[in-house]
């Protein structure tokens, strides 16, 4: 067994390994920024954050990431036309400058434009690096090759937020500088070490190549069964992406993480200092990052377990477990409880997410597998957009601390200035606390017990459960009849 693995490793060319290194760094840069982005966009201005509303945050994040997942349709054609190396160089130049600029602008319009610019760079990168892995592996090496690749994705996604969490305590600008610097490393790798993999060059004009790609997508989407499945899976991604869009903000606003810090310190004071903040708390992104940690250590075990089930059954079971996990996230304000509920959520994610791609590969006609796989971006795009909307208006009405406090202030007839550039969110909280005769912890507990913001997770859990029911009906009333 070991000799077979060793032989496979030796067969993988250097370009494959450099592609994996670049994937790790790109995910480091992206998730280092993205895991804390919701906090940066909505945090109080005197902390260096931007002070946008939850609705603004949701629209910005959802729209840009949706576009990012649609872009590979076009950018893949660009890579085939102009070459992988050239497109990667352009992608890294865009990402480096884009991440830097994200830390320089404070207006909503400019932030939207710059983040869209970053999304363009990520959209250029994504299909090229995956195509490189595909073209540098064969029938013997592809299983291990893609396994290593997805491990790199999760390692990068785990490392990035760890660095960002420490850097943002010094200055939010350092988070974006970190992402820019990491991408610069990738630029050096592609310039000096990356070799263009063997590929069939596209000699068609770019316009003709794009028309051909769009026609192929139209051909795949003429399969009504396939389209129904893609639409159903949007529900899963709408629920799952609350890990990034809503969870960090909810922890910041409602959860007492000093309990977590003290629990860790009772086991290892050094670990508590390394994992926590100087204030004796745990940063929200450190807690949400446990999802990536669980995937790194448990994905192989979970994949080995679910491989015995039909992909659709494994998918339904995984989404059901995921829905239970997200529904349990905040029965209590005790942050320790999140470790368990995030584990449940992560186990469901590990069981269901890989099965989506496997199922698409199985239902595709033999001569259209790559085409159908290319359409798997549609539920990701739709799920991110809907996740953004849910984390905006729905979160504002049901769980946003500032919005609920405004309701309470109005009900009591208190007079407090509106939040502005000179009167921040934290100023509003302090004034309300003073007028209501409560300290900040007592105010948070009062709002929690009065308005029950944790009900927002029942909404997201409900979306997941509805997805499971839709998949069950899709399987029993349609597929099995046929």
Any descriptors?
single chain, 482 residues, mainly alpha, Growth Hormone, Chain: A, 24 helices, 79% helix
What is this structure's SSE topology?
Layout: H1 2-11, H2 14-42, H3 54-70, H4 72-82, H5 84-102, H6 108-135, H7 142-170, H8 172-192, H9 206-220, H10 224-240, H11 242-245, H12 247-254, H13 258-267, H14 269-275, H15 284-288, H16 290-306, H17 311-327, H18 336-363, H19 369-374, H20 377-398, H21 401-412, H22 425-436, H23 440-451, H24 456-479
Characterization of this structure:
With 482 residues, the chain is mainly α. Helices cover 79% and strands 0% of the residues. It has 24 helices and no strands. It has helices at 2-11, 14-42, 54-70, 72-82, 84-102, 108-135, 142-170, 172-192, 206-220, 224-240, 242-245, 247-254, 258-267, 269-275, 284-288, 290-306, 311-327, 336-363, 369-374, 377-398, 401-412, 425-436, 440-451, 456-479. Helix 4 packs across helix 5 (84-102), helix 7 (142-170) packs antiparallel against helix 8 and helix 10 (224-240) packs antiparallel against helix 24 (456-479). The radius of gyration is 23 Å and the shape is globular.
Order of helices and strands: HHHHHHHHHHHHHHHHHHHHHHHH
- Report the average pLDDT across residues: 88
- The total number of structural domains is 2
Biggest sheet character: none
Give the helix tally. 24
- Radius of gyration, in angstroms, nearest whole number: 23 Å
Ranges where pLDDT stays below 50 over 5 or more residues in a row are: none
| CATH fold assignment of the largest domain | Growth Hormone, Chain: A
Number of beta-strand segments? 0
Termini Cα gap: 41 Å
The named CATH superfamily of the largest domain: MFS general substrate transporter like domains
What class, by secondary structure content?
A: mainly alpha
Large-scale geometry = globular
**What is the correct CATH architecture of the largest domain?**
Up-down Bundle
Helix content: over 70%
Strand content: under 5%
């Amino acid at each position: 067994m070991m000799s077979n693995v060793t032989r496979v490793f030796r067969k993988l060319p250097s370009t494959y390994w450099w592609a994996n290194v670049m994937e790790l760094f790109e995910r480091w840069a992206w998730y280092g920024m993205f895991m804390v982005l919701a906090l940066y966009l909505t945090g109080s201005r005197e902390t260096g954050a931007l002070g946008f509303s939850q609705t603004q945050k949701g629209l910005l994040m959802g729209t840009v990431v949706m576009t990012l997942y649609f872009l590979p349709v076009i950018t893949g054609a660009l890579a085939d036309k102009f070459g992988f190396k050239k497109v990667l160089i352009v992608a890294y130049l865009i990402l480096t400058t884009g991440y830097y600029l994200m830390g320089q602008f404070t207006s909503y319009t400019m932030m939207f434009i710059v983040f869209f610019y970053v999304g363009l760079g990520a959209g250029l990168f994504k299909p090229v690096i995956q195509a490189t892995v595909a073209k540098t592996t064969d029938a013997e090496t592809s299983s291990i090759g893609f396994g290593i690749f997805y491990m790199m994705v999760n390692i990068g996604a785990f490392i990035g937020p760890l660095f960002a969490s420490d850097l943002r305590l010094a200055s939010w600008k350092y988070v974006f500088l970190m992402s820019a610097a990491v991408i610069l490393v990738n630029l050096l790798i592609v310039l000096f070490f990356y070799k263009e993999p063997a590929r069939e060059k596209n000699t068609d004009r770019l316009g003709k190549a794009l028309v051909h790609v769009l026609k192929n997508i139209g051909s795949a989407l003429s399969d009504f069964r396939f389209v129904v499945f893609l639409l159903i899976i949007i529900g899963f991604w709408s629920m799952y992406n609350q890990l990034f869009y809503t969870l960090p903000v909810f922890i910041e606003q409602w959860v007492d993480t000093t309990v977590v810090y003290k629990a860790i310190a009772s086991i290892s004071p050094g670990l508590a200092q390394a994992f926590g903040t100087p204030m004796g708390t745990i940063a929200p992104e450190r807690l949400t990052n446990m999802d990536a940690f669980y995937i790194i250590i448990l994905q192989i075990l979970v994949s080995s377990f679910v491989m015995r089930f039909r992909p659709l059954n494994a998918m339904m079971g995984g989404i059901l477990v995921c829905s239970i996990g997200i529904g349990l996230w905040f029965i209590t304000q005790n942050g320790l409880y999140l470790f368990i509920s995030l584990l449940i959520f992560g186990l469901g994610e590990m069981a269901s997410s890989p099965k989506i791609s496997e199922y698409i590969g199985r239902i595709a006609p033999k001569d259209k597998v790559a085409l159908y796989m290319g359409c798997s971006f549609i539920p990701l795009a739709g799920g991110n957009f809907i996740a953004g909307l849910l984390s905006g208006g729905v979160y504002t009405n049901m769980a946003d601390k500032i919005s609920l406090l405004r309701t309470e202030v109005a009900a009591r007839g208190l007079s407090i200035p509106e939040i502005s550039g000179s009167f921040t969110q934290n100023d509003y909280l302090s004034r309300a606390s003073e007028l209501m005769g409560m300290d900040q912890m007592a105010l948070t507990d009062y709002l929690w017990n009065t308005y029950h913001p944790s009900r927002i997770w029942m909404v997201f859990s409900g979306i997941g459960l509805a997805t499971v029911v839709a998949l069950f009906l899709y399987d029993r009333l349609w597929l099995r009849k046929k």
